[in-house]
Here is the input.
Amino acid sequence: MNFAIRDDDTCYYTTPKELEDAYKEIANIPISLSVIPYATFNHGDTFPYKREYFEGKKYADIGKNRILINFIKDNRARYEVLLHGIHHEYYKCDDFWIPEMMYLSKNEIRVLLPEAKKYLEDIFATKIRVFVAPSNWMDARTISVIDKLGMHTMCLLSKKFDHPLSIPFLKYYVKRNINKILKNCESIGIQKYKNHYETEMYPISNDIEMWNTYLLLKKLNAPYIIYTHYWELNKDKEKKKTLKRIISRMLEDGAEPCFVSECFDKI
Here is the structure.
């Protein structure tokens, strides 16, 4: 049984100290950083970054933050880089914020996603193997592109046909809905598509819920990927304590920590 910590929103505005402060109490656990290549200052109505970092930019290029880039490159045993959208921008429609992978056009996704992947690979001198959709929300247009790129991802299958139509998708779709009806559970574990794998991811909630999720995924022989945000942990000390407790409990049970990308290698 493997588990991984996925930290979202590393970008131009992030400092090494913020990452260190968020995870200093779990110093021996690898952290997978979902990195935004050209970040916007706000995520809809959420402003995750300190306002003094904002310099009037619409898009802030992470390549300009050399201190952060060198810090991550110098600590490869601790951090890996995942691709987290392009701008993490939202479009407001009828008082509802739509994340970028749902409002970008099919052609924009086809062009911008490979460019963003290559850009991060160049500046971090590493291979980017995992895509994380902003707000964990994407549809068949994005999934088609990441499959061509051979990038793995995480998502919860929904009732909607949000994947390219294929025999594997139909199989997982039916399995998900049967589980939902009979077991009140949407988890189905690892899913294999043409050129990529997918699995589920889970937020930090409470000790009981997280332990039950761990036991379910252990039964499914699936990794437990916990996602959070460094800026969130630095603001919410209770959430940080909950994460520390569940990690300690999983380690005692024999689970092994790894990077998110390694979860797919162990299939």
Remarks:
- Residues 106-124 form the longest helix (19 residues).
- The radius of gyration is 18 Å.
- The mean pLDDT is 90.
- The CA atoms of residues 58 and 222 lie 39 Å apart.
